[in-house]
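Structure tokens please, single chain.
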Amino acid sequence: MGSGGRWGVAARTACEFPGSLGFAESLGSRVRSFRPAMGLELYLDLLSQPCRAIYIFAKKNRIPFEMRTVELLKGQHLSDAFAQVNPLKKVPALKDGDFTLAESVAILLYLTRKYKVADHWYPQDLQACARVDEYLAWQHTTLRRSCLGALWHKVMFPVFLGEPVSPEMLATTLAELDVTLQLLEDKFLQNKAFLIGPHVSLADLVAITELMHPVGAGCQVFEGRPKLAAWCRCVEAAVGEDLFREAHEVILKAKDSPPADPTIKQKLMPAVLAMIR
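Here you go.
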């Protein structure tokens, strides 16, 4: 990943921060056995960047939860059983007693408010909070789209789905990623340690989990970008190196994914094409 460290990142800088188809049967039995007023359950697959953000956030803030793994590459999110938890058939999803919630940003904000985490994650200051909101609104159709495209066009289509990607398509995808990374630097990071200021926030957590998608595909996203590289190290240090490594272990092994079963491929293809269109 380059000579700058584990993620191809420049040396640490001083940072300020505080302190299977068979699833339908297995999950179906779990859904039927849900008990009223159970504790917090998070339905996640750490292959997913929003799931990683929620996982890191909950672990870092010592929020007690039961993790329900939903394997995306086996199509488990498309099962009727999972639709009982999230009719949108997407991860992440949250179940808190009888309350269910979809969409990663909504889940992060719910956890922030319910567990009253440190203010730097989602500041009470009106303008600082607005900056976090600004980034969270921007990233859905920009950074996420570029990072997803890089992973799928470079690795998942040719390796997992056995579908070739033309050199022209891959070049276009990587060029789009480069433009989006420049926007991330120029608009949001600028010369700060973190995206919103001197402390880590939800914006940083959502952003770094997105960038680890192309990193998992072998893209040198931090090469030639010393400010972005330093920011990455700051975020990793803020959440803790062990937790950061744990959360990203799956995506960093994406290139080793075995070829999809033809039935799974047929089931996944429409959703994948819609996701990266």
